[in-house]
Amino acid sequence: MAKYVLGIDMGTTSIKVVLLDLSSKAVTDSFTLPTNADIINNEVHAKEQDTVQVIKTLNECIAFLPKDKLLNVSRIGVSGQMHGIVFWKSQTGCDWTDGDSGQLFRPKDTSQLITWQDGRCNSDFLATLPKPNSHLNVATGYGCSTIFWYMKNRPGFLSDFMVAGTIHDYVVSMLCGSESCVMTDQNAASWGYFNTGTNQWNIDILKEAGFPVHLLPGCVPSGCLAGQTCCEWHGIPANTPVGAALGDLQCSVYSCMTDRTDAVLNISTSAQLSYAMPLDFTLPNCPDPNSTISYFPYFNGSYLAVAASLNGGNVMANLVGMLSGWMNELGVELSDSSLYEKLIKCALAVDSSDLRAT
After folding, report:
1. What is this structure's pTM?
2. Phi and psi angles of residue 154, each rounded to the nearest 5 degrees, phi first
3. pLDDT per residue over 76-124, tens digit each?
4. CATH topology of domain 4-249
5. What percent of the chain has pLDDT over 70?
6. Strand, coil or helix: what is 61?
7. How many Å apart are CA 274 and CA 265, to the nearest integer?
8. Is 8 helix (H, G, I), strand (E, B) or coil?
9. Distance from C-alpha of 214 to C-alpha of 123, rounded to nearest angstrom
10. What is the pLDDT of residue 258?
11. 72: which DSSP letter?
12. CA dist., res. 64 & res. 52, Å (int)
């Protein structure tokens, strides 16, 4: 009987799920839905998402996959937006209930998801933060920066929670029934105050600043298992191994980099140009504030060099929104996901000579 790997991507604007046949290594089924979960607070330039709506969309995506194949899922892998943060209570982070497609979980005692696009930590605020022991700068939208902001502006908020992680770390923790959170170095490096050379948080620096270090997840290497499903989920058997959540950037590069000399241009809610560094690459001693290149953990101790524009996908989203509005005015109903598919097909159909000429 065929066995499958379930892949989940907790994206900024949509959630994607796929089933991969273990024997043929081919994707047999996939489904995507927009989250429609944005909550914008212009007063503090916040960019948040409704965690309940995000997980509702995840459940809807899984429910669209063939039931007979979900019964034969033998592994679950999860990726998502790396810099964002969600808080929850250790023992009551979700409720498990019976749904039409089997058991599912719904968030409970969780915060909203503060996304990587959050702008509440302006340059003046960031300048007040302690200098990290890391080759990476700290920016607004990063998990640790957001916690520092709450320490200064809403300290009572943090006292309500005992665990924090990315949205995909949260999903993995709930699936495994974990009271704590484990995080790969891919996500930890994107939170700030994490030394990728030692694979440790800057605990001493953070403690001296009064940072609630109990909120920091435990760290594991990318590719490790986080645990097993604590119960049946949409028909997927209990005790199915679940991988620790990975960064969406690293996963998107891994899926199409056939050779280490390849460069990968990824356009989603942001845009990044990435390439793999040599295996003997040595990290810079400290971040260069003027550099347009950042180095993020990849797999097996290697690094990706990343140049991020942070606007490519927003441009695409605005284009899709404009086209959707025009189509509605003409009386034609077409979903955003269908428009994305058509735009991608058009791009793939362009002759390479036309691209060179452009």
Report:
1. 0.84
2. -145, 65
3. 999 998 899 999 998 778 889 887 777 899 999 999 999 998 989 999 9
4. Nucleotidyltransferase; domain 5 (3.30.420)
5. 88
6. helix
7. 6
8. strand
9. 26
10. 81
11. T
12. 19
Task: Tell me which amino acid residue 262 is.
Answer: D
The neighbouring-strand residues paired with 246 are: 79
Res. 168: pLDDT tops 90: yes
pLDDT in tens, 30-57: 999 988 898 877 778 889 999 999 999 9
Q: If phi over 0 gives left and psi between -120 and 50 gives alpha, with beta otherwise, what is residue 20?
A: beta
Helix spans in the chain (H): 51-63, 67-70, 123-127, 143-153, 155-158, 167-176, 185-189, 203-208, 248-256, 312-329, 336-349, 352-357
Report the C-alpha gap between 191 and 141 in whole angstroms.
8
Give me the residue spans of the domains in the chain.
4-249, 256-308, 323-357
What is the residue type of 311? N
Interior/surface letters 153-189, b for 16+ CB within 10 angstroms, e for the rest: eeeeebeebbbbbbbbbbbbbbbbbbeebbbbbbbbb
Looking up tokens 């409704």, which residue turns up?
50
Give the pLDDT score at 99: 78
Beta bridge mates, 73: 4
| Secondary structure (3-state) at 29 | strand
